[in-house]
Amino acid sequence: xxxxxxxxxxxxxxxxxxxxxxxxxxxxxxxxxxxxxxxxxxxxxxxxxxxxxxxxxxxxxxxxxxxxxxxxxxxxxxxxxxxxxxxxxxxxxxxxxxxxxxxxxxxxxxxxxxxxxxxxxxxxxxxxxxxxxxxxxxxxxxxxxxxxxxxxxxxxxxxxxxxxxxxxxxxxxxxxxxxxxxxxxxxxxxxxxxxxxxxxxxxxxxxxxxxxxxxxxxxxxxxxxxxxxxxxxxxxxxxxxxxxxxxxxxxx
Length: 252
Fold this sequence. Notes:
Number of strands: 9
CATH architecture: Alpha-Beta Complex
Oligomer: single chain
Number of helices: 9
Strand content: 15-25%
Largest sheet: 7 strands, mixed
Helix content: 40-55%
CATH topology: 2-enoyl-CoA Hydratase, Chain A, domain 1
CATH superfamily: 2-enoyl-CoA Hydratase, Chain A, domain 1
CATH class: Alpha Beta
Radius of gyration: 20 Å
Order of helices and strands: HHEEEHEHEHEEHHEHEH
Number of domains: 1
């Protein structure tokens, strides 16, 4: 009885596309619905299931952005990541990034969840992974960036009214330290070098910071490799295979 109940509860999590072969007509409609509702899709290859998640547009925090903006909502992404981590039928996570940045704390919250996952995770920056998109990119166990993509590294900033007092600047400094510590802990760049990129005054006309293209991001140690989506998927399946080897050995 308990086994049936557990199986029923797990079935409510997420459907495994490897369990049954749906009709082609229904398959296309269901996949389109998944993409529209959550910006994600589940796929399988050779009995291995991966969840593909997109993080696009602006990372929306505690305030709702205009309907004209494409947004990624942290209150949707975080529970989804938890369900992916807890569902035994999903073997790995592929994250597609094309974001201009957004809310710092919301972005860091999502990045912390990704970095803490035990399952194989691979990210790839397509188009852009700017601002708070950098922690999101490096949070995965292996990161890729498209050759034509770019990443903008700059200090924390805000819009609207601020108080010009020392406490405000101290708050910004401490928030920037949080980002720097996370990025340097999850990538190959040193804190000193990242600090120099953040406060570079010789590149951006109207801002402080640095723009890195795909090759530069790899050379700086932010991203592991320049590659394509196919290469990112291959790397994820390789990580899944390596993770399953100890389990297969223990079962013998």
